[in-house]
Amino acid sequence: MKPKPSPSPLGKTLLPAAAIQKRVGELARAITAHYRGKPLVVVALLNGSLFFLVDLLRRMPPETGVECWRVSSYEGTASQGILRGLDQCRGDFKGRHVLLLDDILDTGLTLHAVAAHLRKLGAEKVEICVLLNKRRKRTVNVKPKWTGFGIGDEFVVGYGLDYNGHYRGLKSIRLFKASGASAPATA
Ligand code: 5GP
Ligand code: MG
Predict the structure, then answer these.
(1) Is 187 a residue whose pLDDT tops 80?
(2) What percent of the chain has a predicted confidence (pLDDT) above 90?
(3) Looking at ligand 1, which residue's alpha carbon is closest to its atom 9?
(4) 6 CA to centre of ligand 1 in angstroms
(5) Residues whose CB falls within 8 Å of the CB of residue 162, separated by 6 or more in sequence, listed in order
(6) Which residue from 48, 56, 85, 108 puts its CA 20 to 30 A from 6's CA?
(7) 62-92, pLDDT tens digit by residue?
(8) Domain that holds residue 64
């Protein structure tokens, strides 16, 4: 007897590629208008904000500065509540306007800690932009100035968002059910 194929862990498409691109264009226009005349550096949190960063940056003024920081708090589909990698994040931000960019705001721990770290490094003003904002109770209070989309409290993948390192390359954002997952765990 043939073994039954395991069901795909990918669920319905929450945000199609075209809707994401349209919204990223709107965000780029709003951010550009806000920072007109003020030199800006974007600090993007990798790997999740990879595609968001590239699509946004290509629609912003060419002189916009960029730094990429690698921090993580997730393993599988749950936040571990500890932020790893922040001690490696350095730079001279004295007197600079910083836009902190991330894929998704969930418990708020990541953005809260990174924003505080940027202020410690001398940033004059830190604003936050997230592509997705999960409607859930935050562990800490974080208020993004710009949000792409509000979504329900469900685990999603695609457009940079992963499940243990997989599915980032999907052009759309889809629901994901870990129970049927076939992707091996990665560090
Ligand atoms: P927070 O620190 O706000 O709890 O978590 C933020 C980070 O958790 C995000 O940058 C992202 O890496 C990860 N995360 C939170 N929710 C999801 C989700 O639904 N899907 C994926 N793939 N990652 C998520
Ligand atoms: Mg992340």
Answers:
(1) no
(2) 78
(3) 104
(4) 26
(5) 47, 48, 168
(6) 48
(7) 999 999 999 987 666 666 677 889 988 999 8
(8) 22-152
